[in-house]
Amino acid sequence: MMRGNGNLFSAKVIATNKVYYDDRLRYLNVRTLDGQIGFMAHHAPVVVAVDIGVLDMQKPDGSWEHVEVGKGILQFANNRLTLLVDTLETKEEMDIRRAEEAKERAEEELRQKQSYQEFKKSQAALARALGRLEFYKKTYM
């Protein structure tokens, strides 16, 4: 048995199209609607709404993994974390040029007169594009 197992928790990260991670972690940091929140072993039970942003995970060996996630929900209870998100992209899957174009399109749409529904859709598209760009800068710069 590995030493330091008391510092680990079970984690499952699931996107709509795949199970991305299903193993133990030392640490996980995610953006919620109320700001960043970090999880370590034996965190108090909680359910939170996850916002678009970078998900940082520290594996048992100490290495880090960073992915861009969309909106979702996270539950931590009994030393188990479950994160369900609508989208998840690794740096290898990300197309930075497409993200820049999406950002410009969304900004242009926000400058035009729109219905409330169109405005919210443009606002969400801009948030996704900005999240991708933030993730790209964090992992490549």
Verbal overview:
Helices cover 29% and strands 40% of the residues. It has 141 residues and is of the alpha+beta class. Strand 6 and strand 7 (64-69) form a beta hairpin. Helix 1 (96-111) runs antiparallel to helix 2 (116-140). The model has no long low-confidence stretch (mean pLDDT 86). Residues 89-119 form a coiled coil. Residues 92-134 form the ATP synthase epsilon subunit C-terminal domain. Residues 10-87 form the ATP synthase F1 complex delta/epsilon subunit N-terminal domain. It comes from Oribacterium sinus.
Structure characteristics:
single chain, 141 residues, alpha+beta, 5-stranded mixed β-sheet, 5-stranded antiparallel β-sheet, 10 strands, 29% helix, 40% strand
Short description:
By secondary structure, the chain is an alpha+beta fold.
**Overall shape:** elongated
Percent helix among the residues?
25-40%
What share of residues are in beta strands?
35-45%
Q: What's the β-strand tally? A: 10
**Spatial extent as radius of gyration:** 17 Å
Helix and strand string, N-terminal first? EEEEEEEEEEHH
Report the average pLDDT across residues: 86
> Helical segment tally?
2
Seen as an oligomer or otherwise, the chain set is single chain
Structural class: alpha+beta
Low-confidence stretches: none
Subcellular location: Cell membrane
Domain ATP synthase epsilon subunit C-terminal: 92-134
Subunit structure: F-type ATPases have 2 components, CF(1) - the catalytic core - and CF(0) - the membrane proton channel. CF(1) has five subunits: alpha(3), beta(3), gamma(1), delta(1), epsilon(1). CF(0) has three main subunits: a, b and c.
InterPro entries: ATP_F1_dsu/esu_C_sf, ATP_synth_F1_dsu/esu, ATP_synth_F1_dsu/esu_N, ATP_synth_F1_esu_C, ATPsynth_dsu/esu_N
